[in-house]
Amino acid sequence: MPFHARASRQGPPFLPLAFRLGASLGLAALHLALPPEGPLPGEWVYLGFLAAVFIEGVFEAFRNLDRFGDPFAVPPKNWIRWNLLLDISVVLLVVAFQGVNQERLFTFYVLPVLASAFYLGTVDILGVALFTAAAHIVMVLSFDAGWLPSFGHTVQDLGRDPADTALILALATLQIFAAALVVVLLRRNIERLDASLVASEAAVDELEALHRRVVDSLFSGLVTLDARGRITSANPAAAQILHGPVAIGEPMAALFPGAEALEEAVRGTRRFELPMTAPGGEPRILGGQVAPLKDPEGSAAAQGHLLIFQDLTEFKAMEERTRVAERLAALGHLSAGLAHELRNPLASIMGCVQLLQDERQTAELQKRLVSILARESGRVDAIVKDFLDFARPGEPKRERRFLPSVAEDLQASWETDPRTDGLALVIGPAPPVWIETDPVGFHRTLTNLLSNARKAVAGMRRPEVGLDFRLEGGRLRILVHDNGRGMDAERMRTLFVPFASGFEEGTGLGLSLVYQFVQAMGWEIKVESAPGKGTKIRLFLPVLPEAGAASQGR
Known about the structure:
Blueprint: H1 15-33, H2 43-68, H3 77-98, H4 110-116, H5 122-145, H6 162-217, E1 221-225, E2 231-234, H7 236-242, H8 252-255, H9 260-269, E3 271-277, E4 283-292, E5 305-311, H10 313-356, H11 363-391, E6 399-402, H12 403-416, E7 425-427, E8 434-437, H13 439-456, E9 465-472, E10 475-482, H14 489-493, H15 510-521, E11 524-529, E12 535-542, H16 546-553
Parallel strand pairs: 7-9
Antiparallel strand pairs: 1-2, 1-5, 3-4, 4-5, 6-8, 9-10, 10-12, 11-12
Helix pairs in contact: 1-2, 1-3, 2-3, 3-4, 3-5, 4-5, 4-6, 5-6, 10-11, 13-15
């Protein structure tokens, strides 16, 4: 694209016209102001030509003002060539009047060549240089040959040696073409920069259009705020979600009246939820996020904020329906599990009661029936107790406990439990650290895990159950492991679900209570198992610092 075609009307003045107006007026004023040197040949022609050039420049300036609103607007290419021709004529006139033998004046020939770099292509620039050099050569030779009359300080038949004339002409031509070379290089750089600028502008326009399409295509509302909290832009989704137009320049409070949660989010919490009332009076819930706007250097200081929000009304309603459905499903599952677990002992109790009502039963049978009643009643009591513990968990009573003492209590409980039937529990050395836990809940958690391990190894040729302790990264890792039957993926999925136990013995709530206690303490539990490869359950919990341990020890 030619440089002049996209030049701003409010940019720098058109140089050839500005030069011609300034040079013609300045030279005429200077000539008239200097003391007269006596009558010079062609003096009035010189002044008349300058006056004509000045008048033509004024006419062209007014024409540009009428057409473009700027007296020095860049004209079409043909008018550029015409202005450069007039500039060359002014330079030729000045050189001729002041004396063609004055080499210092030859520098003026460079000015039209330099000016052409901003408006013409390479070929036109070389044409300007060639025409200027040719015009100067013809003018000098014409004066030397007597073809032109004496003019100002230049007289006919200069009487110079032809070698001197050739040298002067060569110097002038060299200056002109040296300037043309510099101008051509300058012009190529201008064209390259111009092409790069056009490509950059196209890329910026494309990115801007893409940005606008992306913003307009968002389903979420997007509003930008300046540093004072006033709205600077909004996408169509924002107006749709808010059920009304978004006024640019209004404060945030006008868009979200009474939005204390949003103001807190702007101050630092970043996320917000706030109720609002639609124009029809319907209550709605908006939720979103606030992000600081950053400057090109990546700083977010005093730049404003970006609000991204959605209408969460339907989502919240669906979330509540899902929560109710989940509670009902859990309640149904718990009820079915509880009924299943109670059915067997209740059936045994009812059978025993019916048999005891028969007075013909022997004393030995009655004794046996009473024993069954006691056992099954205890089983019902255990199920109800565990269920109540699960349904109404209390807040853990946190106390400091010395880990080796906890390990000793577990070893003693295992050895005194008749259900272990002589099965050895291999306990690794416990690090001498202190932990904070609920003693009763922690003991029940580990005994439940060990009880499950004991059940898993039932029937194995070489059953193994172990308990290990290790410090890892500032945390205590407790590992309960066995070489029992293991669990498949489906059993792993329901491992902590109430009444989903894979064993006949127990209430079906042991691992549910374990998981509930671990969550209440803020610990972490991981389970690793595979059919026929045993099970490993890891607990991760923090240890107390040395200062706390020392204090507890005292």
